[in-house]
Write the structure tokens for this entry.
Amino acid sequence: MSGANPAAAILAVRGIGKVYGSVIALTDISTSVSAGEVLCVLGDNGAGKSTLLKVLAGVHPHSTGELLLDGEAVRFDGPRQALDAGIATVHQDLAIVPLMPVWRNFFLGAELSAGRGPFSRLKVAEMRAHTSEQLARMGIDLRDVDQPIGTLSGGERQSVAIARAIYFGARVVILDEPTSALGVKQAGVVLRYVAQARDRGLAVVFVTHNPHHAYPVGDRFLVLNRGASLGEFDKAGISIAELTRLMAGGAELDTLAREIERG
Amino acid sequence: MTSLAPAPARPGSDERLAARHPVARLLRRPEMGALVAALAIFTYFSLATNAFLSPAGAATWLYSASLFGIMAVAVAMLMIGGEFDLSAGAMTGTTGLLVGAFTTQYGMNLWFAMLLALVIALAVGAANGFLVVKTGIPSFIVTLATFFILQGVNLAGTKLITGQVAIQGMTLVPDFAAGKAIFGSTIPVLGLDLKVSIFWWIGITALASWLLLRTRYGNWIFAIGGQLQSAVQTGVPVRRTRIGLFMGTAAAGWLVGMLSLFDVATVQATTGIGQEFVYIICAVVGGCLLTGGYGSAIGAALGALIYGMILQGIVFAQWDNNWLKAFLGGMLLLAVLVNLSVRRQAGVRA
């Protein structure tokens, strides 16, 4: 099923599971992602996508199985640890401040400054230049890094958030439903950007419920349902129609179609 | 020889921006509305009254503006961080009364008394901040409680210690003259006898502007007020910064307390009460959003300048003093409407 070489994987999980109290949210999931590869995690609402994301991002530690970073078993005690290990997560809300300029958002929490203690000052020109340079490199063409980030389109904002994650040393970028709130055109902007990140050698984990967004950009597809894996597929091994059918629950969808037709 | 080839674009510039004039850029700044209003009010009272532009007149409205301005700047920083401090006015009284009581009633060394008052003010500010951060109760409520507590303590405590509602006799305290040189002196500039508080006001405004626009703390303050959750997610030390802002308004309260104390050598127990909303109005007129995340220190200083000019201008024009309040309310409403459009332009797609 899986064509990945686990030895080269930056991030891998082996038989991982997560239990919240008496709720089994995730059982026996194994997958991996390597540099320059896009792993799509697909599933309907409640399939366990968010739980897997939280385990990978260090938000919640896993209950069973192993989390492997560069082949070594690790356990994250918080998002900061995952971040320090080069695993950046772009959450759905993007962690941006709409009224602040793009460049201030880009460096928020990690501002470049010169001088010591109370006399340290921001390197404003440098941060502006870095921001537009980074965005340009990733194909985001901004008119003005001084404009409030809230004035950008949804796709542009998503792209800035991804660029920020990459700039701050991420090797693995986890994207949580980056296209779900976007229109067709804006989703295209983000997908092109995901491809850019992949081409720059990043490992990308793309969590989504939309197979039409996942299929064009993904290398491999992990399909989850009710906390368990329905299988992991190479792009060559599955068509978009099959992927959609599998996600929607296959036989369940057939039954639904018949019911609706009769009605 | 100079080449005729077009200069390579600066990093960070874009050819589509070429048309943006520096003036257009300036107009986007939060304090622009206040600057226009300040010029209009200045022009009006200069023409309508003789006293307004006289050296003594100008020194008077500048002095008025300076005391409100120092507070408004600190309150603006707090408001940019998304909070309010209703105890800021009463704090100017509390600190003055503390120093007055410590020195005149208990014979404490003046400098030590001032230091102790500062420490107490900072502790009250920290307590405000801690309660807001820890419990999530809106700062409006927490500081409203602090305001009433301070108001009660100021009045009851003063009566208890002195039997009066004011503390007097500061001039007899050793070192009072030295204190007055720092906080209560008058400096002649170009024929104007300017109170030293005006220079404190300018200094505090410059310091606050620098903090807001050129340091990491400034970035954090805008982020906390603009989108708290995002600030948390990007690793901004949110609690420390928010508590620090409340301590900032308390420290400004202390400074203004000292400036009034050394100016008149007397402290009324009611000092500062009722002024907390004036600071907020000055900040809002200066471009601060009531919802946080946007504003400027220079704007708040201009808001205070407007307030000072109107306050004294009405006296010079020999109008009924009560018009001030009506005027203030109108300004506030206008400013809020202008600020709303700013937020619509920038943040509506958030």
Observations:
- Chain B has 14 helices and four strands.
- Residues 1-19 of chain B have pLDDT under 50 and may be disordered.
- The domain at 32-340 of chain B is CATH 1.10.3470 (ABC transporter involved in vitamin B12 uptake, BtuC).
- The beta strands of chain B are 166-167, 186-189, 192-195, 267-268.
